[in-house]
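Anyone else keep sequences and structure tokens together like this?

Example one:
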Amino acid sequence: MFDLLIRGARVVDGSGRPERAADIGVRAGRVVLMGDGSGAAATEHIDAKGLILTPGLIDPHSHSDWSVLANRDALSSIHQGVTTEVVGNCGVTYAPLADPNVDAARAALASFGYSGEVTWRTFGELLEVVHGSGTAQNLAWFVGHTALRNAAAHAEADLVTAMRWYLEEALEAGALGFTSGLEYGAGRFASSEELEVLARVAGARGAMYASHIRNRDADLDRAVDEFFRVVRAGEVRAQLSHLNVRHDTGAADGAWHSAVSRLERERSAGWDVLADMTPYPHGIGLATGLLPDWLIASGDEAAAEALRDPAVRASVREDADRYWRFIHRGQWERVRLAVSPATPEWEGRTFPELAQLTGRDEWSVLFDVLSENGRDIGAVQFIGELFTEDHVAEAVGHDLFLLGVDGFTSRREGPLGRRTPHPLFFHGYQHFLSHHALRAHNLSFEAAVHKMTGAVADHFGIVERGRIGPGAHADLVLWDPERLRETDTFTMPDLYATSARHVWVNGIAVVRDGKRTQARPGVRLDRNNVC
């Protein structure tokens, strides 16, 4: 007797192999039959004739730890068949926390719609808060280097010793490893030697390292070299996050191809390292990444206050050629204000629109936003037109690139709805399948599914997920192929994506006939039980 029997599906099993027809039987949250289920009894039968069954999608580079406390139902992503997310990326997590950092964390999380108290301090305590009330999706967690550094700055021990202690605590709590974001925040002040020390701690425990590297334009080669020095120092499995080059930011001709060639050589030499790519030419970023070291070094609140000074503003205008360097070249039309806790009424507008609205130029608008946010300056985010279509297509199709959105799960109402009026959040995962695979043919459908399921599970050590077969956890998606092919994923859906007709997490339906159920069957995927 099965709990669920899916009959006659076109099964794309997550391995990269061609689809085949099969029935799938599920019992106690696991796949127990893949073959012929004729005549079998089941509590629930699904006629899947003409539909495509895949494993639940796994995002290798998610920031849903920022929004999950306000969106436990994972509405934007669960409707796209995403059943597992790897979170804690780019060095930014909301644990560990020292007491002086709590108010900033509370304000940042409130900007995503979380109205509760910040009761945790350790990484393990954060995981208990998140998973204690349930989530729709499974979550596998990294701890962020920026969080380690900020917490350690208030410890009695020296900085690196305290960071090691906080990392050990996070790994003991189940973190997959640690991530860094080296273009902004506290990460930009970290030395290679500091990262190497932490990598040795991670490597000794069989944990991973993932990095938003220090530069992706004129100094891309040096940034990639630093990444591999850290990997070698810790002898760690690693992820080179969103390895891409922003358009018109000074990268040398062939810089991206050189970086990819380095990745290929390191793989051939035996290092277990992959990269990932986003679905659109658009992406999110942190506004403070534009600011010079001499300003940010004084701390967030002091930097925000300094930006009220016209002389400081004049100096920053001349010293902001970094990170999204096309802004320094005057290409403000490529940038929208995505998140600003102090000025939510401006969210979603381009900077030229804000300049027209306020009667000020774009730099003045930016400085006004940053200064108004005060100690929450680090929460201010952009969404921008970053890459060319050809660059995205080439990276998406490359064998060593996993496919992730580099966003966070959202919803259509409330603070999250106001700050995510972009298909990246509501069609981004499906865009890989609908646009890149089925329409543009940048890769096969089976390859796209593999790079969003089995390949991710293999690399991050997420066992018994990412593939369909006997013994696997029943994270499953039943797709309507016509909707997949025909949906315009460059636009927002009417409400949520509709191509994933049925979605199961651990054998429990979270989407049925295109509608969200009330179930929250997601689990916490600790390193201690996934690797």
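And example two:
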Amino acid sequence: MLGSTHGTLTTDFRARVEACGETPRTAVHSTAAPSPDDAVALDVSGRPLHADVPDLDRFFRPESVAVIGASDTEGRPNTGITRQLIAWAGRVGARIHPVHPTRPTVFGLPCHPSVAALAAQHGQVDLAVLLVADPLPLIDELAEAKVKYAVAFASGFAETGTDGAAAQARLAAAVRRSGLRLLGPNTNLNAFSEFRDDLDGPAIALITQSGHQGRPVYTLQELGVRLSHWAPTGNEADLETSDFISYFAEQPEVGAIACYVEGLKDGRSFLLAADRAARNGVPVVAVKVGRTEAGARTAASHTGKLTGADTVVDAAMRQFGVIRVDGLDELQDTAALLARARRPQADGVVVYSISGGTGAHFSDLATEAGLHLPTLSRAKQDELHQWIPEYLNVANPVDNGGHPVGDWRGRKIINAILADPSVGVLICPITGPFPPMSDRLAQDLVDAAEQTDKLVCVIWGSPVGTEEAYRTTLLGSSRVATFRTFGNCITAVRAYLDHHRFTTGYRSPFADAPRTPSPSYRKAQALMRPGQQLSEHAAKQLLRAYGIRVPREQLVTSAAAAVRAAGLVGYPVVMKASGPQLAHKTELGLVKIGLTSASQIRDAYRELTDIARYENVPLDGILVCQMVERGVEMVVGVTQDELFGPTVTVGLGGVLVEVLHDAAVRVPPFGEDQARAMLAELRGRALLDGVRGAPPADVDALVEVVLRVQRMALELGGVLSELDINPLMVLPRGQGAVALDALAVCR
């Protein structure tokens, strides 16, 4: 059977999977990069396994910039933009060339009547800024002049509805033909913002689909956090969020990527970009709009993109290591921490405070959020009690009682905690200023942070924020992560530990994705019926083709044949109507269970056919099935998502899936580790471990079914609209899993 989550496949499991024609997945990670051939490699469904990184160096650092529609007439919007671009060009060393058909000069700079005239006189133009209402007529001219990049500020495209979407589609098609790369339309000047060059350390690269939503992260520069780039992607007719994630993940100065995302242009491109960031160890932190119908509707009206089903988006982000946060304050705090903090040496978190109440409160919240607060060893507690009164708790949280922070003992305590090998993070909540002790405590924490590779966090709870200890001491340190709230600190620290845990030894799931169809695919093709729902019998044949176990059963068309079938299958049996239009047989009374005699079989056959005739439901026959009673009912299925394509779902089966909605989702491709992670996310996971005297279920067999269904999703995604195995009866450990019912809908 399968080993642990991070183990290898046994020979038995490997043989069973290879019999289905697929390469076994393992959860053993490596940092192997894709081969050079991956740039054009496709998976079995014809989708790319690798995304090229766009060369955006000349976009962010152009030498020659054409401003088309430049103006110096006061009161005109183009005048303010032109003035800002001239100032930006001076900072980055670019040459600005105004372009206008009737103006001889703009702000004293020579003005060219066209881009062609500009290129003829000055040569290569790296970037064209289009200050025009309709950029489409300019695209061919820019292509003729071999302009590399363009920015379109104009609005009135996909965000306005059907007509605008059609106009954007025409613009996108023209850009594709031209070879030009376009930012926008419906974008802004954020890419040309001023970035401080006096800040050191890893930087945050910022991507936003709404310029204003990036302001909190941009202003982190005023707190000493470095920013390197800002990409305001707008409607993404060409360049999209994924392009910038891929590019930023390759830049040596980028320590974290912060995103505000309203919708995704292409789900696959996003996953490939996130995969690249994970392979390079660059954290991606994102606010993603669309958790509610109202949010999704508003986002669509803003940039005209699909927000996607939120449960799928959430799962896909988690699957590829993207850290999703809810608020802009969380975005800035989490991105800042991940950009600047060094790799953790341990996952243990110690809470250190001057108040037992503060320590207890924070520890409650941190533990509930999943942070590991180890109990310090007896030796370490004895060491701390050299400086802290014996009656105070120092096991973790560490309560110093207040007075030791005012003298030499405060630094000794901090150093002793950080020296513990089980401690990777020290968090000190300071709920309010109390000079001079709070000043001394802040300085001791900063000094200690400068001498350690471990993460030191401080929560400064004062709402004023003008205190010297906060403004100068804490914010002046690049080694202390300072927060204003408990919640933001916990969110950021959890993301920090999760990110490094996820990326350590990360192996791209695209590296193991199948590229050629299995023998199962060829069998399955013959069963598919375009635009139709398959009968249960046909759906089970589809499962058999992929090596998924189904009960012993026979399809019959007479009562006499049903009796013979029951004898072959073995009593007791289940009888079910089978037809291509049957989705919920139980509600119609078309399932009979526990039949133990020939007379019951004949009566059941007659009753099932009578009901079907009365309900006007066409049948292809009656199924006589082996009765499987003992096990845990699960559901495994495939659905199509508008952004990501086929997705795989696993959850509690039977009627529980409709009542509790306890399910986990993944986007193929994924490996055994992710299949097991899906099970761990279920609220009802304990049922698989055995409860109230029930034996543990065969989890390994369930994982195998999930991986086989994933293979179906990859190979049949173009023709399979929906697959629902419900229930999948997971038998006691070592006995496998059986698909008792199945529904399949063809596209």
